[in-house]
Amino acid sequence: MNARAEGCTAAPDPSSRVVRHERGQHEVFCGLTGIVWLHRKIQDAFFLVVGSRTCAHLIQSAAGVMIFAEPRFGTAIMEEKDLAGLTDANDELDRIVTQLIARRPDIKLLFLVGSCPSEVIKLDLSRAALRLSQRFSPAVRVLSYSGSGLETTFTQGEDACLASLVPVLPASTGTEASLLVVGSLADVVEDQFIRLFDGLGIGSVQFFPPRNSGSMPSVGPNTKFLLAQPFLPDTARELEHRGAKRLAAPFPLGVEGTTGWLRAAANAFGVDEALFDKVTQPARVRAERALDKFRKELSGRRLFFFPDSQLEIPLARFLSRELSMELVEVGTPYLHREHLAEELKLLPADAAITEGQDVDLQLDRCREARPDIVVCGLGLANPLEAEGMTTKWAIELVFTPIQGYDQASDLAELFARPLVRRAKLVA
Amino acid sequence: MQLTVWTYEGPPHVGAMRVATGMEQLHYVLHAPQGDTYADLLFTMIERRNKRPPVTYTTFAARDLGKDTAELFMSAARNAYARFKPQAMIVGASCTGSLIQDDPGGLAKSLGFSIPVIPIDLPAYQRKENWGASETFYQLVRAIAGPKAPPPGTKRAERAPGQRAKCNLLGPTALGFRHRDDITEITKLLGQLGIDVNVVAPMGATPADLTRLGEADFNVVLYPEVASQAASWLQRIFHQPFTKTIPIGVSATREFVREVAGLAGVDPEPMLAAASTRLPWYSHSVDSTYLTNKRVFIFGDATHAIASARIASEELGFKVVGLGTYSREFGRDVREAAAKYGVEALITDDYLEVEAKVAELHPELVLGTQMERHIAKRLGVPCAVISAPVHVQDFPARYAPQMGFEGANVIFDTWVHPLMMGLEEHLLAMFKDDFEFKDGALPSHLGTGHAPASAPAVAEVAVALPQSAPVLDGAASEPAPTTPAPTGAVWAPEAEKELLKIPFFVRGKARRNTERFANENGVATITVETLYDAKAHFAR
């Protein structure tokens, strides 16, 4: 991925810290998993994976018992005849999409999602999307992106999805600066941020992705954007192509992160310091008080992150600085040094960061260190618990409202809960 | 291409993982892209295993494709061999791995390990999970037990007098529906007959155990989807006969006991006389009379679907109105079974087709998989799970076999539980306007209180809309539109009102029968009279 080279060359001093790079077995999800939350976020979109039975099985397993009604995603499973070239894959795709749209006439936005198999056989989904868009316009817009494991890890699926949307966002016409918040957030978090921005007098705030395809944000040279999530380099680059300017900020996790994030917007929009303090002070004080409850439980506890979502570095920053936890190792699937520069400045200088993974070697290090709590995926969590370690499964951090002031203590509680539980259980 | 909302089976390499994870001391090196490790959590979360599955994935990414993915595979295999020191290794590719054609089998052979390395070729774009498990088990048995085979033409030595008969239990795997407790139950049952278990495989067996398969007198095939291919081979090469009866249900268990006793040369009657199971008495007791001819739809893997149909019909007195399977390999068996109940078998792996069939048949109970729970929930029909695929709640902590006499007890409780209890059913038919126990409410013993007000509408409209199910999630809980019946006949308002007096769970069936009756008799307007004429016509 080309974002890598870009990140390294632009690295400012604080982010030139030593990072271990590992290559071996990756125990991570592929980008298709992003569909599990994106289909709920953008309510009139449908995600059609073009892939194999494995892809269908993956999303179904990841979605688990969550979905008992008909979900807004599906898989066009490629069969032998598609691979052997006996049928034209494009004709087949057209047939399936026609069938799907007839079945669900309420779909306004259809994503064709590429997978490893479709990638390897070089099925051109972007051309298919263009063709189908023309056919079903204006009722349905068809876009494509890749969620394959070859190219994306877990949350990078959201990046690929949003990046595919940016070129079709309406152009902003006004001359006044507007703020765009980028990255899926829980509805409750969005609403809190809207109130805070209102209080700061930043009136024109839009969120991306929106809650439905009819309310896409506009973008243009007057747009300043804040990343709400650390895993969006491609989306950011596409926005920059449209003239939008990224505001450098830490991510809105914890009191410090949220304050830094809001301050970046306040500075860009010329909000004066007194107003900023007046608006944020009550929430900051309240959040600090709520965090107090967890400081005793978490302070001094040793923490080990396996790579999963790219949220690891902001989380490690929050847990070490605001709850005094000790960082044994912070694994991340991919480190974008430019977007994480503000985070890296705040992270303790001696924190061991690992980019990539060789799961067996990382498990060796983890066992050796015997941390108090291990943040890892569901494939590792129960086996590590059985070895006597306390774990926090990482995926929950993507499915829970954790950003902003009023979620800071909820976020701390997610880490305290497994420790409390271990202490409570006698048998 | 095939449009898939839910899939009944995973890809074939997941079947191979079920064999490898069920076994001990066997390692699987899988050439697969980053992300395919999701399969680990099937075992660590759904089955709640306390160890990582013995699977090393190469997890190649896009940047590796320009380089030597074959070298990546070899280093993964070398590392796995050094780290895990297995007794044997299987190697293969996932769907994407097979597209890049690195030949894992050949590569692994070239590494010169001192253990058996068995290549497993799984056609990921043609076959599925159970086929993958069956093929993997068969290849393992061939490769590991094969060298101990007697020379062709030799006869099996007679068992020494006084020596207890020995059998293998074949078929249980990781992620199998109740495999853990079925093994316990059948082992106990065989013990009561004086038969020892030689090897249970794949579940719990090591490759070293597989070398001892030939020492048993016969094989017990518990799950034909996984074991019948291996058992046929063992019969051919080691002259071991294998059992054909699946001991799910009381009658089937009795037949099974007689079958194994025959193979072992022991007398089954004392054991059968002493055996106790509560299902027959529970089912005969008058409390169960209201179960008579309850209309049931059954879907699952072939083994569980066929066994369930027999129990439903002969042991619980239900009426089987639909029977089907997603196990295409066993389609013929299911067709034969369906013919016994006068229904046409539904052989499909298309979830939407199953959904349409359930909507059309209007059963009072659905016995199926996790997927049928989705369907039954949407249509407001009671449901119990009889077969994989299943989710975490069907890997219970308690003892919960499906096989043998205790299995029959478990089945009685599980299947009757979702049905409304007898007294409540009567009262609902008598008094329709109770503010609390009203039409379409969930059975009050299920505790959740009342179904959404729209539930009756959803269930009824489903008859008319087999192909166009409600759309977005939200729509499922909104009142469904009143679509005209797909017939020429029109309902008169009084008749429509009278229809509402028929108990909720049989109303859809009554509507359909009345419409059919009206069509067949050229009735244009369905009146109250037509409704009762039809009722008399279709009286059972």
SS strand fraction of chain A: 15-25%
The CATH superfamily label of the largest domain in chain A reads Nitrogenase molybdenum iron protein domain
Q: Give the rounded overall mean pLDDT of chain B.
A: 89
Q: What is the gyration radius of chain A calculated from CA atoms?
A: 22 Å
Q: Unreliable segments of chain A (pLDDT under 50, ≥5 consecutive)?
A: 1-12
Task: Round the mean pLDDT of chain A to the nearest integer and report it.
Answer: 92
Number of helix segments of chain B? Answer: 23
Helix proportion range of chain A: 40-55%
Supply the CATH architecture of the largest domain in chain A. Answer: 3-Layer(aba) Sandwich
What order do the strands of the largest sheet of chain A run in, or round the barrel if closed? 1-12-11-10-13-14
Q: Which geometry of chain A do the CA atoms define? A: globular
Please give the share of residues in helix of chain B.
40-55%
How many beta-strand runs of chain A?
14
For the biggest β-sheet of chain B, the strand order reads 11-10-9-12-13
Give the distance, in angstroms, between the N- and C-terminal Cα atoms of chain B.
Answer: 44 Å
Secondary structure: number of strands of chain B: 15
The biggest beta sheet of chain A is recorded as: 6 strands, parallel
Can you describe this structure in just a few lines?
In chain A, 44% of the residues lie in helices and 16% in strands.
